[in-house]
Amino acid sequence: MWMPGATAPAHLKNELPGDYGFDPLELGKDPEDLKWYVQAELQHGRWAMLGVAGAAAPEILTNMGISNLPNWHEAPSYDGYFTDATTLFWVQMLMMNWAEVRRWQDIRKPGSVSEDPTPFSNAKLPAGVVGYPGGIFDPLGYAKGDLKTLKAKEIANGRLAMVAFAGIMVQYDHTGVGPVANLVSHMADPAHNNVFAAKFIGF
């Protein structure tokens, strides 16, 4: 349980990955809504994990002298890409639209788009498992192991990443530097460089 002594709502039966009985507003009371919320949290968590890695990695590589990449906040206006930002935006829109529409169709009708329309072998998702990859998207065969534990770990890391990226945005708004610079600054002088000592103007 998310809090010792708490009682889980009737609609949360400890069947979902990361289910700790937390739904004070009863948003998942409707079973159909709950299915969508489960998928929404899963996708947001995955994007947040990529976002945190994407915010930290360029800064780390630049500090190591391996590359000279922009801060995550300055990346959209960076002019060192192989093509202009407008072209990158539309290519991403088209590719993401194709992937997201297929994912949406699979949520609405599980199994309807479970087979990849490419000439790869074994490019089929596991039966009845919505939102979790298989076939060519599972080259290391994780789905054949303790999938229940892996799902719980993924959603826990995804939730942490969502909170972390919110922190990265607030930090940048206050300090004007990336997460790695903020972490180094805090570690150098934790007594003065922390959220309690900061003066959040406008918050």
Automatic annotation (TrEMBL):
Residues binding chlorophyll b: R46, L125
InterPro entries noted in UniProt: Chloro_AB-bd_pln, Chloroa_b-bind
MF GO annotations: chlorophyll binding
Signal peptide: none
Domain of life per record: Eukaryota
Residues reported to bind chlorophyll a: E41, H44, K153, E154, N157, R159, Q171, H186
Family from the record: Belongs to the light-harvesting chlorophyll a/b-binding (LHC) protein family.
Name of the protein described by the UniProt record: Chlorophyll a-b binding protein, chloroplastic
Organism this protein belongs to: Ostreococcus lucimarinus (strain CCE9901)
